[in-house]
Q: What sequence folds into this?
């Protein structure tokens, strides 16, 4: 069974940076598309960034140029480098793995950006 564990969430001032990590168990990480989602207070969960098994990436317009998604298949880990953080980036950030038609989710990590 796949387990996803996020880490790196914190409280940071606007303009600051954070790096989130998502560590995956199991043997399908390198074959899976990975993504970061977030859910802000009173909002629906939204896609932040996605990285394919081959390394192709795409981003939500709201984070383009500020966030960078990456993966290290040797470590079964995905990252999200977040720069120039804004108060509207405040949310619980979730790691997602998609293997064929099956989705796996982490428990989430809280990011709070103070103004």
A:
């Amino acid at each position: 069974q796949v387990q996803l564990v996020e880490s790196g969430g914190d409280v940071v001032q606007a303009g600051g940076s954070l790096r989130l990590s998502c560590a995956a168990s199991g043997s399908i990480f390198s074959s899976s598309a990975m993504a970061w989602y977030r859910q802000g207070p009173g909002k629906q969960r939204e896609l932040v960034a996605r990285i394919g098994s081959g390394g192709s990436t795409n981003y939500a317009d709201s984070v383009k140029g500020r966030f960078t998604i990456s993966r290290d298949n040797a470590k079964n880990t995905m990252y999200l480098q977040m720069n120039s953080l804004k108060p509207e980036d405040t949310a619980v950030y979730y790691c997602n793995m998609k293997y064929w038609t099956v989705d796996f989710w982490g428990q989430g990590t809280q990011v709070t950006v103070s103004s």
